[in-house]
Specification:
Layout (H helix, E strand, L loop, with lengths): L1 H5 L5 E5 L3 H13 L5 E5 L17 H6 L5 E3 L4 H13 L5 E4 L20 E4 L7 E5 L3 H11 L7 E5 L3 H5 L3 H7 L7 E4 L8 H4 L4 E3 L10 H7 L4 H9 L2
Parallel strand pairs: 1-2, 2-4, 3-4, 6-7, 6-8, 8-9
Antiparallel strand pairs: 5-7
């Protein structure tokens, strides 16, 4: 914050995401003073693995999203990460938190410049969607794979990647309606974090594939299975409508 106030440098902070708990008072000052500082938070979920629940963030996304004047950007792949960096580098008064995974993520076929608007359709259907799945970060891939496995089910499924809720809220009502039409109430949110920041997007009839307990120590693949954050769990939620 001091470097940004002095000027001449584009400063950043970097640490494990779970340690945003320690950083929060200073991040709050960045937001309060309208300093476009960049926070790089890595190891964003139970994918941390053997380090255990003390190092596995669950509620931290909700904490940062609750902070006024803070962009919280959780990208699903390399392209969205570049979009997050663009937001961070071009912001004049709003700090940006980039929430990055530990595990490798595949390049998503549909990722595009819509990420700069906070939320966009990354995988659409041919007609009006029966179900909309909203996801961020590593869970976008889960949503796309679940849809692929249900391609013979005659369900029209739209996948929305929402790396940044704050940017999405800034868009026009027309744009937001084009992405999340109000007539489609069957919605699922998929994210390896608390469900608490998603209510306005998923609605009363929506379902959650989220992380609402503390994690555990173990191999990442085993943990995602144990805490029901797999393709099969997304498919199960879809079939419950």
């Amino acid at each position: 914050n001091g470097l940004m106030l002095y000027g001449g440098l584009k400063a950043y902070v970097a640490t494990f995401f779970v340690f945003s708990d320690y950083v929060k008072p200073m991040a709050r000052l960045s937001s309060l003073m309208k300093l476009p500082l960049t926070y790089v938070f890595t190891h964003d979920s139970i994918g941390v693995g053997e380090d255990g629940p003390t190092h596995e963030p669950v509620e931290q996304l909700t904490m940062l999203r609750a902070m006024p004047n803070m962009y919280v950007f959780r990208p699903c792949d390399e392209f969205e990460t570049k979009a997050g960096w663009y937001v961070a580098m071009s912001s004049k008064e709003t700090p940006t938190s980039l929430i990055l995974s530990r595990q490798d993520l595949p390049k998503m076929v549909g990722s595009n410049r819509g990420a700069l608007r906070g939320g966009y359709i990354i995988d659409d259907c041919m007609s009006k969607p029966d179900i909309i799945i909203i996801a961020s970060g590593s869970e976008v891939d889960l949503a796309v794979k679940a849809k692929e496995q249900l391609k013979d089910s005659n369900l029209n499924i739209r996948i929305v990647s929402m790396p940044c809720q704050e940017l999405f809220r800034e868009q026009s009502e027309e744009y937001k309606e084009s992405i999340l039409p109000s007539c489609v109430e069957n919605r699922i949110v998929v994210e390896a974090g608390s469900r608490l920041s998603w209510g306005e997007f998923v609605g009363f009839k929506g379902k959650y594939v989220t992380m609402d307990t503390f994690g555990a120590s173990g191999k990442p693949a085993d943990l995602f299975k144990e805490f029901h954050l797999t393709v099969e769990d997304v498919i199960k939620a879809i079939k419950e409508f």
